[in-house]
Structures are given as structure tokens and as C-alpha cells.
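Protein in question quoted for reference:
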Amino acid sequence: MKKAQKIEVLEALSGKLSGAKSATVVNYQGLATKDLQVLRAELSKVGGTFTVVKNTLLKLALDKTQAGQDIPTNALDGPTAIILAKDDEVAPLSALAKFAKERALPKLKFGVFDNVIVDSEKLEILSKLPNKTTLYAQLIGTIAGPAYGLVGTLNANLQMLVYIFDQRSRQQANLLKAVITNGK
């Protein structure tokens, strides 16, 4: 690759990195072309892209971000690809983890979330998180749960009060009937 081409690729990669919500760097060595196509399709469904990159160009692109200095030692050895997330930070990582679990490839190297380098162990933990929509729903359920409990408790008290009034009115009606019946 000529120097001008490298500069163009570097600028394009830097632009993609700065526009991405997260990036995951993997070693794809041993992955068959057919499997690679399947992985790309799976990532595309969840808003991710899989791009094979040269280690030196990736290092230079990461150096343009604040995270470039924190790259783990030897993380950019061997064949390298980068998975960029466009919309949801974790969804492409989850799809990648599911794919890797079935085929034992690709291997996680490190990730970049908000210009912070995340090692492979933390990436595995992040990959097990549900998608953003599910997390929002769980959060809302957690926040709203006590309010629903309070409403239920107050509603039960009101129902009990209505029941007591109903029973008291029946008692009064029965007493009135007894008085009328005995009075005749």
C-alpha cells in the first residue's frame, strides 16, 4: 500500500472510530470466509461493522483518540479486525460473543468505550448485558415497582373501607328490618 493510500485509510479509520459508540478489537485468525460473512451479517443486524485493519494503522488511528496511550502490550499482534458499534454500544459485542461461543472464534483483544480501553475480561462481562432497550425497561420497572406497590396498598385499604361500609349498611338494614318486623 502506498503512503497516500495509507493516509486515506488512516483518515477513514479515524473518522469511523470517532463516530462509533464503541469499538471492539479482535483476532480473527482461523475464521473461515463463510463464517466471516455470517458474522458480518449478524453484526450488521445490530448496528455493527466488521473491518479487517492493519495493526500499525489501527494504532495510529487510536493514537488520535485519547485512548491510544492505554492499549495493552502485544494487543496489536497477529491478524486484527475492529468491530464498530453505530447505535448501541453493547449490541454488536453481544452478537460477537454469541458467534464466538458457537465457533470459538474470533478472540477478543480489547475494546474502546468512551475513549477508555477495556480489556478482554471486561468485554466478556459487557457482552452478557442485555440490549439498551431491555436495560431501560428494567430500570423503569425497578423505579416504578415501589410506586405500584404503594398504589396497591392504598387501593387495598380503600377496598377494605368500602367493604366495612357495605357490611355496616347491611347490619343497619337487618336491624331496621328486625325493628319493623317486631314492631308490627
Remarks:
- Helices lie at 3-19, 33-45, 55-63, 91-103, 120-127, 132-183.
- The chain has six helices and five strands.
- Residues 132-183 form the longest helix (52 residues).
- Strands lie at 22-27, 48-53, 80-85, 107-113, 116-119.
